[in-house]
Amino acid sequence: MDIYIIDGTRNFFHFPVNPEELSISRSKGYETITMLEYGEFDFAQGDKIKEISFSSFFPKDYDASYCRYSNLPTPQAATNSLNRFLVSKRPAQLVITGTGVNVPVYLISYNTSFRGGEPDDISFDITFRTWRDAKVKQKKTSNNGKTTNKSGSRTDLKTNNKTYTVKSGDSLSKIAKLELGDSSKWNTIYKLNTKLIGSNPNQIKPGQKLVMPT
């Protein structure tokens, strides 16, 4: 399992340590109406917004037994990245591989703490709420006096992605060095293109268009 947050410009954050537990809260809205003679009745409404929350930490040093990748951001840099998602007014995409979670969300709560035995690490609790577009109907009057309804436009999470076309003799580490300036970031490219490349990251083929991280 890997957990990513991706914004509309394809900037993304990859959580370095998986949580022990992932919580997804779902509930249905309802309205209770009281009828004098008959008592209370519940009437179901639409589904409420889902909340996704977990706890983990940002390690100062890499440890292969629990870290998802080796090129770790510093705990403070990781915290700063999440703070930018917290204050952003636009939704981002939350992707949790292996769970089916791939939804637009707002980061609504992010709390950090420092533990005595691990002073250089930063522990955190984080909560996301799924984003739902408000489909507002707008009334528009035409020249003949007739009124029509028009749906309001939704926020666009997609932008034009930067791609790289694989050439003969290329490898992911070579592409990472050429495009990102660091050959060790080949795994980042692979994770964004796993479906295209397949299970073996060494078997890229000329002509394949790889989505590149920014």
Structural features, described:
The chain is an alpha+beta fold and 214 residues long. It has helices at residues 75-87, 172-180, 186-192, 194-197, and strands at 3-6, 12-14, 22-25, 28-35, 39-47, 51-58, 92-96, 101-115, 118-130, 137-141, 147-151, 163-165, 209-211. Strands 2-1-7-8-9-6-3 form a 7-stranded antiparallel sheet. Strand 10 (137-141) and strand 11 form a beta hairpin. Helix 2 crosses helix 3.
Spell the H/E element sequence: EEEEEEHEEEEEEHHHE
**End-to-end span in angstroms?**
22 Å
| Biggest beta sheet attributes | 7 strands, antiparallel
Count of separate structural domains? 2
**Which of globular, elongated, flat, extended, rod-shaped describes the shape?**
globular
Alpha-beta content class: alpha+beta
Low-confidence stretches: none
Number of helices: 4
Q: Approximately what portion of the residues adopt beta-strand conformation?
A: 35-45%
The CATH architecture of the largest domain comes to Beta Barrel
CATH topology (fold) name of the largest domain: Elongation Factor Tu (Ef-tu), domain 3
Number of strands: 13
Mean pLDDT across every amino acid position = 79
What percentage of residues falls in helices of 4 or more residues? 10-25%
Report the top-level CATH class of the largest domain.
Mainly Beta
Task: Kindly report the spatial arrangement of strands forming the biggest sheet.
Answer: 2-1-7-8-9-6-3
Gyration radius, rounded: 23 Å
